[in-house]
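Design job #97: recover the sequence.
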């Protein structure tokens, strides 16, 4: 009998080119199928594990558990959970603790990541790390253990990316702690981290401190909510309560070691904390370049930063001015954060929704910009006419994408921006009985927007000229409703006097007697005069402005019906 006949059934030959890691993976994938996780199997097939163990710097047991994860990532781009690994190995429940322990070890080594799904936030799916897939396909071991730059700036950038993945639910929250621990260990020789090592901080304290440093240096935030940070990374209720209590009792190591402090010495609040001077002094010793944020790419709107908003003098009636002032006060960062916390603790929606309605040119959009400027908040500006798509489902997808982009803007700027819908009646209009595909699309868009506003966490502002068309369901979801009416004669006079510094009082009175102009119309008249003066420097304001007013007034439209305050 030929010696080859003595080869065990399903036996495969190790490839001569041992760098072909995929072939080795395939050998073990077939050989281990249906075999229990036992030392005898690993010992019997040791020759198949040698090359892979060396490549990944793993034990044979770790390599064996890694095999199906590699195969599924390369072949099907799918996640693998522990039950699938047990089924593949034909292992009983007694093997579950071992498999779980090995999976945790592979996570710590950076070879796999636990992935969350959209619907199962506690999913137990594991996926090969992208860099490891590249290493396998290229046969380049150096990719597995890349020598990452060891600098404080690189550490801060890597931590920021890791924290964002955790916020986006792209990494399991418990695994986030493991990866932060690994990142800290890999960079422990950096002088700042070496200095911190004397305090023997717990991993939770390291996360809080690293996040505060990131906020301070990258987002330029000095007054930081530690309460929000804890809510973000600690999902176990008991552990979260215990961690927050350690601050309330003054026993947390960050406090006892004087690494962070309350910003209000008379009122200790987790919502208002900052890095202590000693931390800032040790950070200043690092050679830190100005950290640049990644470019924010937006498809559905534009982000207008506070410094890009031009100062504009606005005039309101006394009641309107009081309402706008109240909103500005409410949206000041300290007040806003405390109100949101109070709402959240009482089980209420934390979103602030506002609609400004009135005739064209009465300053609705300008008022939103003024609020943003005074509260130092960016505006994520959406033009509603850009939302409608040509194809079925496209418009609905665009609306959902707006709220996704809003969250990206929030993370990019480190503060809740204002989500502004101009001419919102196009989306907030009354739903109709569906008689056509177009009707159904309109209703579906409205329903999606209603659903988003029901759970919205942020600041939503909308403007409309046609408030009578507003769907009643939207009215119930709008917290503040402000009417901006055309200016009174007295207000109109103030706007004209502000726009034209050299205008005579008699001219102002004559204009007010014959015309009812909005702020936008007066601005148009000012623009016409400036253009006319460029072509004719000798033109006299008081002689020509009446004719400009007459031209503008021709375009006045009847004002549509309005709703009252609620």
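Job complete. Output follows.
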């Amino acid at each position: 009998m030929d010696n080859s006949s003595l080869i065990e059934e399903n036996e495969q030959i190790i490839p001569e080119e041992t760098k072909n890691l995929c072939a080795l993976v395939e050998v073990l994938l077939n050989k281990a199928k249906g075999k229990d996780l036992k030392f005898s199997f690993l010992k019997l097939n040791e020759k198949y594990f040698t090359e892979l163990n060396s490549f990944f710097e793993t034990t044979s047991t770790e390599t064996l558990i890694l095999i199906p994860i590699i195969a599924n990532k390369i072949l099907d781009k799918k996640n693998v959970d522990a039950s699938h690994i047990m089924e593949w190995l034909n292992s009983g429940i007694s093997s579950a603790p071992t498999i779980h322990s090995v999976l945790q070890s592979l996570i710590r080594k950076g070879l796999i990541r636990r992935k969350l799904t959209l619907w199962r936030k506690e999913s137990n799916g594991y996926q090969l790390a992208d860099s490891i897939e590249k290493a396998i396909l290229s046969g380049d071991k150096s990719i597995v253990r890349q020598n990452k730059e060891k600098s404080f700036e690189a550490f801060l950038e890597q931590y920021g990316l890791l924290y964002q993945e955790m916020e986006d639910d792209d990494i399991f929250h418990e695994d986030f702690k493991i990866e932060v621990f690994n990142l800290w260990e890999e960079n422990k020789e950096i002088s700042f981290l070496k200095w911190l090592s004397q305090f023997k901080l717990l991993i939770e304290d390291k996360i809080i401190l690293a996040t505060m440093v990131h906020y301070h240096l990258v987002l330029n935030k000095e007054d930081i909510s530690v309460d929000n940070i804890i809510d973000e990374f600690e999902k176990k209720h008991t552990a979260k309560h215990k961690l927050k209590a350690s601050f309330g009792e003054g026993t947390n190591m960050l406090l006892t070691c004087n690494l962070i402090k309350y910003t209000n010495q008379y009122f200790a609040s987790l919502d208002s904390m900052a890095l202590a001077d000693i931390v800032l002094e040790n950070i200043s010793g690092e050679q830190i370049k100005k950290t640049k944020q990644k470019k924010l790419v937006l498809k559905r709107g534009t982000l207008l930063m506070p410094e890009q908003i031009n100062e504009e003098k606005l005039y309101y009636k006394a009641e309107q001015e009081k309402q706008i002032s109240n909103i500005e006060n409410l949206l000041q960062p300290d007040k806003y954060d405390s109100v949101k916390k109070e709402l959240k603790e009482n089980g209420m929606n934390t979103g602030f929704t506002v609609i400004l309605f009135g005739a064209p040119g009465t300053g609705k959009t300008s008022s939103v910009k003024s609020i943003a400027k005074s509260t130092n908040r960016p505006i994520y500006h959406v033009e509603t006419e850009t939302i409608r798509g040509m194809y079925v489902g496209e418009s609905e997808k665009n609306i959902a994408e707006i709220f996704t982009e809003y969250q990206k803007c929030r993370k990019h700027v480190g503060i809740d921006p204002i989500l502004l819908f101009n001419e919102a009646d196009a989306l907030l209009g009354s739903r109709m009985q569906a008689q056509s595909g177009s009707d159904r699309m309109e209703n579906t868009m409205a329903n999606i927007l209603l659903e988003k506003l029901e759970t919205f966490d942020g600041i939503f502002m909308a403007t409309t000229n046609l408030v009578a068309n507003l769907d009643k369901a939207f009215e119930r979801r709008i917290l503040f409703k402000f009417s901006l009416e055309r200016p009174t004669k007295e207000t109109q006079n103030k706007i004209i006097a502000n726009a034209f510094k050299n205008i005579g009082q008699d001219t102002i009175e004559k204009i007010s007697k014959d015309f009812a102009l909005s702020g936008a119309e007066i601005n148009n008249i000012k623009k016409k005069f400036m253009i006319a003066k460029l072509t004719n420097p000798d033109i006299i304001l008081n002689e020509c402005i009446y004719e400009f007013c007459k031209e503008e007034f021709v375009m006045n439209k009847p004002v549509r019906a309005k709703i009252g305050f609620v």
